[in-house]
C-alpha cells in the first residue's frame, strides 16, 4: 500500500496541514540492513525521506509534553523489576500511541522499517514500542544494553533525534561501545534532528554522554514477542 492512500496529513510548524509522502529508496534500507549485519549498528540521516513537517511537529509535541511536565522519570527494568536510579539514567519519557498526525506518520515510517528489516534479515519482528525522551542539562544514561540475551523481546533499537543545530560541545552524544572491550568507543552520534541510529538491542553497549542543552529524541524497539508487557 502506498502511504498516500492513507490520506494522512501532518501539521507543519506554521500550522497548515501537509499530505504525508515518503521519498523512499531501497538503497538506504539495504545499507541499514548491511550495517546491522556487519557491525551491529548504523547511523543515517533520514530527514529527506520523511514527510515534510513531521520532524518539526514531533519536536513541538515533545517540547509541549516537557513543558507541561507530562513526562515521567525513566526507569530501568520492567514490571516488578522497574526502578528509577539517577546514578544510571536521568532522562524523562512519554510513550507514543501513534494517534496524533505526526505520530501516525512516524508509526508508518517505523512499520516500513520493520517490514524492510524482516524482508532482508529474517528477524521476525512483530511490533514496536516507542517513547519520547528528554534529557535536561546534566542528564545522561550510563553504558547499557537495551535487552537481555535470550528474552527475544527487544531485538532492534532505533533512536531518532529531534534537535536542530546540535553542536559537539553541547555534549549529549550517543557513544557506541565495543561489546568485547570495555573502553573502546566504536562510534559517536550527535543527536541532530533527522539523524537516526539503529542497532541490535542485545549486542551493542551504548551510553548517552552528559548533555549541556535540553535533548529530545524518540527511542523505539522492534520486538519479536506479540503481547505487550505491562510497563
Ligand atoms: C535508550 C538509549 C540513546 C539515545 O533510551 O535506551 O540508549 O541516544 N537512548 O538517546
Ligand atoms: Mn539504550
Description:
The protein has 231 residues and is of the alpha+beta class. It has one domain: q2cbj1_9rhob like domain (Jelly Rolls, Sandwich), CATH 2.60.120.620. It has a 7-stranded antiparallel sheet. The radius of gyration is 17 Å and the shape is globular. The N terminus is likely disordered. Bound molecules: N-oxalylglycine (OGA) and manganese (II) ion.
Annotation, overall tally of beta strands:
13
Uncertain segments are 1-7
What is the helical fraction, as a range of percent?
Answer: 10-25%
Largest sheet: 7 strands, antiparallel
Overall shape: globular
H-E order: EEHEHEEHEEEEEEEE
Q: Report the β-strand fraction as a percent range.
A: 25-35%
* Whole-number mean pLDDT: 89
Count of individual domains: 1
CATH topology (fold) name: Jelly Rolls
Provide a compact summary of the structure.
The chain has 231 residues and is α+β, with helices and mostly antiparallel strands. The chain has three helices and 13 strands, in the order ββαβαββαββββββββ.
Search tags:
seven-stranded antiparallel sheet; binds manganese (II) ion; 13 strands; alpha+beta; Jelly Rolls; binds N-oxalylglycine; disordered N terminus
Strand-helix topology:
Blueprint: E1 9-11, E2 17-19, H1 26-39, E3 41-45, H2 54-67, E4 72-73, E5 92-95, H3 101-121, E6 127-135, E7 141-144, E8 154-161, E9 174-177, E10 185-189, E11 195-200, E12 206-208, E13 215-223
Antiparallel strand pairs: 1-2, 3-11, 4-5, 5-6, 6-13, 7-12, 8-11, 8-13, 9-10, 9-12
Helix pairs in contact: 1-3, 2-3
Amino acid at each position: 500500500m502506498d502511504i498516500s492512500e492513507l490520506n494522512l496529513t501532518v501539521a507543519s510548524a506554521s500550522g497548515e496541514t501537509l499530505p504525508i509522502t515518503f521519498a523512499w529508496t531501497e538503497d538506504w534500507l539495504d545499507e541499514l540492513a548491511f550495517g546491522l549485519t556487519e557491525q551491529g549498528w548504523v547511523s543515517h540521516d533520514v530527514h529527506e525521506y520523511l514527510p515534510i513537517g513531521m520532524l518539526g511537529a514531533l519536536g513541538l509535541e515533545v517540547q509541549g509534553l516537557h513543558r507541561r511536565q507530562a513526562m515521567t522519570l525513566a526507569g530501568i527494568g520492567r514490571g516488578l523489576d522497574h526502578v528509577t536510579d539517577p546514578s544510571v539514567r536521568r532522562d524523562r519519557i512519554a510513550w507514543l500511541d501513534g494517534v496524533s498526525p505526526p505520530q501516525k506518520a512516524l508509526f508508518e515510517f517505523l512499520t516500513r522499517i520493520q517490514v524492510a528489516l524482516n524482508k532482508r534479515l529474517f528477524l521476525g519482528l512483530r511490533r514496536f514500542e516507542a517513547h519520547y525522551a528528554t534529557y535536561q542539562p546534566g542528564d545522561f544514561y550510563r553504558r547499557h544494553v537495551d535487552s537481555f540475551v535470550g528474552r527475544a523481546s527487544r531485538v532492534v533499537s532505533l533512536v531518532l533525534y529531534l534537535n536542530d543545530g546540535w553542536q559537539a560541545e553541547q555534549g549529549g552524544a550517543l557513544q557506541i561501545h565495543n561489546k568485547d572491550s570495555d573502553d573502546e568507543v566504536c562510534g559517536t552520534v550527535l543527536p541532530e534532528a533527522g539523524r537516526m541510529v539503529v542497532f541490535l538491542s542485545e549486542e551493542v553497549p551504548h551510553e548517552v554522554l552528559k548533555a549541556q542543552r535540553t535533548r529530545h529524541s524518540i527511542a523505539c524497539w522492534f520486538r519479536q514477542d506479540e503481547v505487550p508487557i505491562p510497563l
